[in-house]
């Protein structure tokens, strides 16, 4: 790859640029950011050959463009970038929701009459409760799963380019339809964030003495509740149907546990905890095999 352009270099976008530099996957890196303070930080880091708030300067002649903005900003950023993209340029992203992102990208490409460019959705599962370029790491994607979600504008060569890119950054790849992706991440990413936030509210709100007793287990269980409320409001809102469905299933599961407790059913309680432990152990074994 000759030229990689990253639009929105926060935690994920900055890590993409750092990882691309470290792996030697591209000859040239360019970064686009809106805020003047972000531009100054990026320029002083020497992470890119071009750092600019002029999107034309950043995306012109790029082989691959990675959009690393929040979901809600993607449409506007695409509209700004599309007129300046080189022929056969490929666009990918890092957004946590794929149905709305892939359909929006395909629609904007069609409206811009840029059938010579392609979009391939991607979601590297490598985020953090931390934000901003200052927390970006070159090894953020090492060993992470990355969903690849093709759309109407995806070509075979474009998907191959995107798969090779994320693979070289250290990801193991999982091909999914956008709607299937959204249903799955509702279970393993979006629901856990809501549950962590609810756990904090249940345990701490109204009685600060609980904070004094909280140990590593509580901190580990609630770490992701530290994520940006604004960002998570957007993510959960964009995937509200799938999240609502899985949240209803979780509430039903909790209601069943409540009945077990109220019924003094120690055998049922032990069975519930044993099943959960076995399922969790299976995750650990699977992760170890992959590594």
Structure explained in plain terms:
This protein is α/β, with parallel strands linked by helices. It folds into two domains: 3-176, NAD(P)-binding Rossmann-like Domain (Rossmann fold, 3-Layer(aba) Sandwich), CATH 3.40.50.720; 180-290, 6-phosphogluconate dehydrogenase C-terminal fold. The protein has helices spanning 11-23, 36-45, 55-59, 74-81, 99-111, 156-168, 178-204, 209-213, 216-222, 229-238, 240-262, 266-290; strands at 3-7, 28-32, 50-52, 64-67, 90-93, 118-124, 145-150, 172-175. An eight-stranded mixed β-sheet has the order 3-2-1-4-5-6-7-8, with helices on both faces. Strand 1, helix 1 (11-23) and strand 2 (28-32) form a beta-alpha-beta unit. The protein is elongated and about 70 Å long. The relative contact order is 0.11.
CATH architecture of the largest domain: 3-Layer(aba) Sandwich
Question: What CATH first level of the largest domain would be assigned?
Answer: Alpha Beta
Number of domains: 2
Give the overall average pLDDT: 93
* Silhouette: elongated
Spans where pLDDT lies below 50 across 5 or more residues: none
Radius of gyration: 21 Å
- Quick one: CATH superfamily of the largest domain? NAD(P)-binding Rossmann-like Domain
Q: Give the CA-CA distance, first to last residue.
A: 27 Å
Number of helices: 12
Let me know the largest β-sheet: 8 strands, mixed
CATH topology of the largest domain, by name, is Rossmann fold
Helix-residue proportion:
40-55%
Strand-residue fraction?
A: 5-15%
